[in-house]
Amino acid sequence: MLVLEGVSRRFGAKSAVEGVELSIERGSFIGVIGRSGAGKSTLLRMINRLIDPTSGRIALDDVDVSALRGKELREWRARCAMIFQQFNLVGRLDVLTNVLMGRLNKVPTHRSLMRLWSDEDIAIALTALEQFDMGSFAAQRADQLSGGQQQRVAIARALVQEPEIILADEPIASLDPRNTKLVMDSLSRINRDYGITVFCNLHSLDLARAYCGRLIGMSQGRVVFDGGPFDLTEDVARQLYGLEAGDVIDMPEEMPAAVVAAQAATPPVLAAH
Amino acid sequence: MLVLEGVSRRFGAKSAVEGVELSIERGSFIGVIGRSGAGKSTLLRMINRLIDPTSGRIALDDVDVSALRGKELREWRARCAMIFQQFNLVGRLDVLTNVLMGRLNKVPTHRSLMRLWSDEDIAIALTALEQFDMGSFAAQRADQLSGGQQQRVAIARALVQEPEIILADEPIASLDPRNTKLVMDSLSRINRDYGITVFCNLHSLDLARAYCGRLIGMSQGRVVFDGGPFDLTEDVARQLYGLEAGDVIDMPEEMPAAVVAAQAATPPVLAAH
Amino acid sequence: MATSLKALPAERLAALSGAYASEMRAKRLNTLMFGAAIVIAAIASGWIAEVNLTKFVTHIGAFFSYFDRLATLDTGARVWTDIAEWFWGLKKWSLLLLDTMLIAYVGTIVGALGGFLLCFAASSNLMPNWWIRNAVKRFLEFCRTVPEIVFALIFVIAFGLGPIPGVLAIAIHTAGALGKLYSEVVENIDMKPVEGAVSSGGSWPEMIGFAVVPQVISNFASYTLLRFEINVRGAAVMGFVGAGGIGQDLIEAIRKFYYSDVSAILLLIIGTVMIIDLVTERLRHRLLGAGGQT
Amino acid sequence: MSRTSLRAVALADMNGLRTRHTAEFAVPRERVIAIAIVAAMIGLFAFALYRFEFSLTRIINGIGNLGSFVPLMFPPSPGSWPRAWLFLHALAETVAIAFLGTLLAAILAFPLGFLAARNTTINRVVQFMSRRMLDSVRGVDALIWALIWINVVGLGPFAGVLAIMSSDIGAFGKLFSEAIEAADNKPVEGVTSSGGSHLQQVRFGVLPQVLPVIAGQILYYFESNTRSSTIIGIVGAGGIGLHLSEMIRTLEWPSVSFIICLILVTVAVIDAVSGRIRRAIVGPVPQDAH
Amino acid sequence: QDWKAKYPELVFAIIPAENASGVTERYTPFVNYLSKELGIKVSLRIANDYAAIIEGQRSGSIHIASYGPASFARAVTAGVKVEPFAIETGIDGSKGYHSVLWVKKDASYQKIEDLKGKNLCLVDPNSTSGNNVPRFAMNKLGIDPDKFFGKVVYAGSHENAVIGVQQGTCDAAFNWWNDEQESNLLRMDRKKMVKAEDFRMIFKSEQIVNSPIAYLAALPADLKKSIRDAVYNVHTRDKAAFDKIYEGKQGPLVPVDVEAYKPVIELIKFVDTLRKKSGS
Ligand SMILES: Nc1ncnc2c1ncn2[C@@H]1O[C@H](COP(=O)(O)OP(=O)(O)OP(=O)(O)O)[C@@H](O)[C@H]1O
Ligand SMILES: Nc1ncnc2c1ncn2[C@@H]1O[C@H](COP(=O)(O)OP(=O)(O)OP(=O)(O)O)[C@@H](O)[C@H]1O
Ligand SMILES: [Mg+2]
Ligand SMILES: [Mg+2]
Ligand SMILES: O=P([O-])([O-])[O-]
Prior knowledge:
- The complex is a heteropentamer, with 2 copies of chain A, 1 copy of chain C, 1 copy of chain D and 1 copy of chain E.
- Helix content of chain C is about 75%, strand content about 0%.
- By secondary structure, chain C is mainly alpha-helical.
- In chain C, helix 5 (about 90-120) runs antiparallel to helix 10.
- Chain C is extended.
- The two termini of chain C are about 35 Å apart.
- By secondary structure, chain D is mainly α.
- Chain D has helices at about 5-10, 15-20, 20-25, 30-50, 55-65, 80-115, 125-140, 140-155, 155-180, 185-195, 200-225, 230-235, 240-250, 255-280.
- In chain E, strands 5, 6, 7, 8, 9, 10 and 11 form a 7-stranded mixed sheet that branches. In chain E, strands 2-1-3-12-4-13 form a 6-stranded mixed sheet, with helices on both faces.
- In chain E, strand 1 (about 10-15), helix 2 and strand 2 (about 40-45) form a beta-alpha-beta unit.
- In chain E, helix 2 crosses helix 9, helix 2 (about 25-40) packs antiparallel against helix 11 and helix 4 (about 70-75) packs across helix 12 (about 260-280).
- The longest helix of chain E is centred in the last third of the chain and has 17 residues, at about 260-280.
- The chains are: A alpha/beta, C mainly alpha, D mainly alpha, E alpha/beta.
- At the C-D interface, helix 1, helix 2, helix 3, helix 5 and helix 6 of C face helix 4, helix 5, helix 6, helix 7 and helix 8 of D.
- One adenosine-5'-triphosphate sits at the interface of chains B and A.
- Chain C: This is Phosphate-import permease protein PhnE.
């Protein structure tokens, strides 16, 4: 059970996350939704302890995560893998080494510093890459990849961590439909088969509804919605995305409203499956 | 009329774009679709001349764009604004200055270097920012913004260029449904009202179908599809995303296939409009 | 091993890891050969430089003998027992120090401006033209290789004795040194913002001003202030053109074995260096700002 | 044609924009401060020129004399073949001493650089102390370092190596630490988030970014020690610096220019090698990277 | 001899004199000669700064050193235990050089006293002939340079001082001068930097005693004796080596003791008294 108690974070005068109270069951698949700037990334980063809450407390099964230090903190981070919105790869290192970063906590420091990875680790990393069609890029430098390729490397890095919690910050933003499905399915699979808790920031409500067992809606740093995928009514969505106030944008008239409304989709072929 | 004749680009041994032949009418809204790594970004970057084709020719109304140099090249770039997949903002500068960079070609160099922007330029930049709810971030450093906020700044920068062509590389990847609509609508509006040609790399086929007058599908550097939004049949999509070969990914059974298929959506409220 | 990743067929795995290993082998071999070359060069240099570790170890105690004398007054007492006697020349030295800083300031400013204007043309990522780039590089090398003393002599003949020829010589050397260091920083920048500026039709100077300078300014500041520090300490030229300065007083004290003077002046200089460093630190952290977090 | 509605909207709403964004239209405070600082710097500059009795007429009159001395240096000539050989030999010796001194300084300064950088240090106290220590090492004149090491190992090239080493540690420590502080934090976060220790963050997040910069700095100091080889001359190791100052002292200008040319060639070679090494570390300039 | 076990190698160090070039080439045969005579290895070290040699002798790592007169005196006042044993001589047997004061040929000044309120160029604070001797001499004349002259400038080098007079920056400049055949001015003339006939000498100091060779006082007596024996006889036993050093322009190395350097040591002590006067 992961518990957030009154967690807040400010940047200077700006409050990015405010008074978040949550209890998350082990093995949940949580979708975090909300407008750009709502504080979704900040929330995930606090759980991984990349940034510390200004106030409040994060705890897992009575362990106060927000008080961990040193080795324990590193172990906590290894247990909750993070997939970053902007990938955060090391551009000058090759793809495989970037993925192997996910195993740092499991390798003796002196070996990792010399980059003496075991065959097993390499096999795990290659497996993760291959799962997302990136096996053949293993020796390429990360900064020479296309956007979607970088994103897949970042996801592979998180998976090889063999974590208990996955914090995925818009893991599919730069991905094409096929890779979107690949990624979401594998998150779903490890969630289901191994009981790994998944937090996933998503902009697509349909995906959120399809994959997540529980949705958390954020607005201006606060949790304004918390419920099952089918509790997310039109009104809630309205409020979440601030669409109630007179919508200033005019819609291109020549387009069917329904089509405009659908934001994205896997090719219809899939729908026919 | 923008014409691409046998345009190719290789990186070392790797061919990113190969033998692309296209003629684009002025005022078209082109959607470029295809798998991650298909060469979409590379294609757009070549049109803006950020990278040069290894072979082939790009021409606008008989002007050989691929041969422009110096001032003419800069003017060409000013005429075709680029929205980057990874935003390409200057993290250490404030948001407003980042947007005002879109006006560099219209301001004498000595004034711009002293940051002596005219009130008119500032007004244009602020209007563009406000249009995407970013007015209040004008003075903040760009590297302190959330992902979606950065993306909106990048879009504002392109718009203040007052371009004739907009090259948008996944402009909505990090955006929430409301901002997605805001952005796509304004692209659509300036395309319709001012006859500005728009190239838009998109991963969402629904959005592509809804907004684009013509779709170009790329695969492994080649154009494999070119047609209207309703020519994009299931078969074509299958081929484009390489789904024909036995789909290795198993789908989470407990989910309704139709829901799984839809990749994303604006909240249903909008559909009701 | 229990893993949440689906295992890969053995032959596919072998193929992938084989491909990776062979790509890496070349790189690794390069690294190894490079390392070996360094070690061999170091051993050869050690032989030429008559490195003698036994001598070093047996006499290392003497390392402190000079410091010991530095801490002793002419009277034989420790310096700190009589601060007034130790810093008898405080007023004179402080004035000299200020004077020297003024000279170093002008020389550094002029030189840094020169180096700044030239460094972009010497960077391979911003100046694709081989000829211009190399011409600028060679020019910068010339500026820093011709000894300051020679420039100073030329300027003394042209403009007469006084600080001006010294300042000019310092400025030329500074331009050559900073131009090179700056250009290496520029070669290491992130090119994404550069593309951002270029894609909207910005001119070359605008690209530099908006996309490059914000990225490099903190490193430039650090190099410039280090050079300022070097120029403050640098004695040779200013002494040579008859402009004196704290450096010359220090050298004089060293040569005449006025040990307590040496330590006093040294402390003044170290204090100055620390102040400059603290200022640089604040300045740089301001320029670097909070850093990207999202 | 290229008038988007943006401009129309902006101009129509000028007053609204002004009230909503007074700060953006006003001259920013930072600009005022910056202008004040620049003005103060120019003022100090002007004061300095006045103090140095700078006069334009003196400069203009002097410009004519500027070239009068240069012809004495042409054509560059060593004087005799054995002397040319001697110079070459001294140069080779200098390169060796400078190489070893710089290498040792770099090795010793490397950990110090990480301790002195805000983002990689252990704690603030360690950082503060490391920086002040580096300041002190830098503050001690090279001549003093030379004298100190002469006491230990006597006159000779070894003392030169040690003196170069000690006086460069301070500069390296400072330069390394500042390059480290300027590194991008995103890759570091990537390593941190997967449980990487401090050492691993540095190794995988920071090091790949700063290695090219550090390599450049080391090679620069190698070059610098080669060309300004005064210490080597002081400690009695000969070297090219000794010959250069001797030639200047005895006014043998063609030999002076000959030696300068020799050093120039050496510097150009070091520069070429340095370029190759840095490219090997940086990889091909990722101009087209995404 | 038992000192051979204790001193398997001797170090001979020199400072390049301000008026000679090719130190390495010139001294190598001499050092080889010493080595042959003593039967042990003698290595040559040339240091560009005499402070380095003094430190080296203090730490015992330099056994024999060829000093300038002032630097030898400095070593003595710095408390290093060294003994001078040989001195260079001129071809006429003279044992010194001079500090002289140059003015422009057509200037009206005839002696130092005429320069009241004018500008004076000294060389640098460390120079014997360009600073220490002139100050000592003027002190004897009852002149306090800092009050007497309009401005006293350290020109930085002997050459700069001459150039200063030529350009009018100063009205007079001190410089080194051996004899009618050799001086810095003549050398600059030969290198076409100035014309010697444009200058006139209005002061010549007493002779500054020539450079000594000194060894560590702590060396064994018989080693010292062997060294002396070798050095005094080099011009006969190895004429080639001897001629290589002095190119036939100087006489043999002759015995000397510290007594001959008392005046220079006095001079140095005088200079030290100036130290704190110039301050605060
Ligand atoms: N380092 C920082 N300094 C100042 N403000 C920050 C910083 N990081 C984030 N913010 C602000 O905090 C707010 C929340 O940011 P966050 O990144 O959590 O949003 P988000 O919900 O992830 O948005 P998006 O969907 O656009 O990624 C934003 O308004 C952002 O500008
Ligand atoms: N600088 C480079 N060096 C080497 N290969 C590169 C470079 N830039 C791109 N590539 C390769 O070229 C191919 C096409 O890249 P591109 O960025 O155009 O893809 P994309 O269609 O935009 O993909 P995405 O949807 O993931 O952004 C990719 O396989 C990529 O790895
Ligand atoms: Mg975010
Ligand atoms: Mg792309
Ligand atoms: O050019 P520098 O040797 O002074 O760095």
